[in-house]
Amino acid sequence: MLFLALVSGKRFRNHVLLAGSLIFYTWGEGVFCLLLIGSMVTNYFIARFIERYESTQKFFLIVGVIANLCPLFFLKYAGFFTATLYSITGYEIFDSQVIRSIHLPAGISFFTFQAISYLVDVYRKIVPAEKRIINCGLYISMFPQLIAGPIVRYHDIARQLVHRAVTRANFAEGAERFVFGLGKKVLLADPLGIQADAIFLLPVAELSTPLAWLGATCFSLQIYYDFSGYSDMAIGLGRMFGFRFPENFNYPYISRSMQEFWRRWHISLSTWLRDYLYIPLGGNRKGKSRTYVNLLIVFLLCGLWHGSNWTFIVWGAWHGLFLILERLFPAKEKMVLSQTLGWLYTSLAVLVGWVIFRSSSLASALDYLKVMSGGGLGTTSPELVQLMTDSKFHVEFIMGLILATPIYRLFKVIPVRPDLVQQPLPLETGASIVRGSVRLALFCSVAYFSVLAIAVRAYNPFLYFQF
């Protein structure tokens, strides 16, 4: 695909990419590719109607939003709402067997939100409607970020759909980003996820407090490296095709407040929710009470977006609650002690939230949190003893903790040595060569061990494929 796109020339490269994206989605989702094609065609024409018929713009926007949300609601949430209604009233709308058999197409939440943002931006006159259906279809279905984001706004790549260049520097940078994203997935997320799954699946009676904390930490690292790894791969692959996708993660685990966490975690989703839900609801412009209600609504829907389970809804409410509390009791961020306590509080709140997110039910989440709070202190845990003697796990866990901080970014941007700045050119060139050689060695090592891990390990899909 990469080769064909590069040699097809400017005239046909979007055609090649669109065809490749549809083949990619058909390979994984089969007949549901028709749903993706339907989304492309529907949003193309509705955007044109919104732009052309000013007197009925709002009508076409509403039709477009409903047309995008209906498949998402039926395929993702029909079972959840049917089961909830049945548990409350005893009345079953649909046959539960049929509902349970519905397959959720990969990435439907992502390309649905992307399409809605396009229609809204055309309605707001932020962008013109795309005149070529090939370009509109490619925007919605571009395979590097189709399955799990980042959620790309049309105005971010509108010009790139027409004018983009693939340079050696961009290609090399994209390849590096792709390989490091792959390394995050297969060298960190997958092995840490194996340990997290094993711990979360243990009966509560066999779970000790230290092991429960270790399991929660492993899952926190797993979901970060799994999702940020996919984002890095998508951004890197996009760069190799000549596109610049927005960043989706910025070291969220160094955050000192929940507000900062959501500025660093899943950035494309949090900004989407801000621009297309929070602000239209009134944002913070209608008084404090309305602001708090708006925040809670947004994060309840954020939780529901992640999955059709009460655990996701409670997880969203958990984050919304802390965002409200931070507005009620603002911290003095400039104080060192306040920053340290802020990091500890945020880390604990996020960790507890991930336990709720990971659990299969609210009851199991509550049981797990009870053990974390000391309820399993008196039990012995052979699993913990085994992990503590596993040197491979030690390396993976420690590297997971270290690389969740911006150490590599510092390595890339800090000057080699301040005293060399005014030195003759050969010294600066030599230092650059050394640094480049180290990066090349790191690139080759990550690529080698990632391919090796893929070859010897069973397939582990990305966590966010289910969303």
Detailed description of the structure:
It is built from 21 helices and no strands. Among the domains are: 2-164, no CATH class; 169-257 and 331-397, no CATH class. With 467 residues, it is mostly helical.
Which labels suit this protein?
21 helices, globular, 467 residues, mainly alpha
Summarize the structure.
The chain is mainly α. The chain has 21 helices and no strands.
Distance between the termini: 26 Å
Radius of gyration: 24 Å
Q: What pattern of helices and strands is seen along the backbone?
A: HHHHHHHHHHHHHHHHHHHHH
Question: What is the number of beta strands?
Answer: 0
List the helices and strands and how they pair.
Blueprint: H1 2-7, H2 9-29, H3 33-52, H4 57-89, H5 96-100, H6 108-123, H7 133-141, H8 143-146, H9 154-162, H10 168-200, H11 209-240, H12 258-264, H13 267-281, H14 288-306, H15 310-328, H16 336-358, H17 362-375, H18 382-388, H19 391-403, H20 407-413, H21 425-456
Helix pairs in contact: 2-7, 3-4, 3-6, 3-7, 4-6, 10-11, 10-19, 10-21, 11-16, 11-17, 13-14, 14-15, 15-16, 16-17
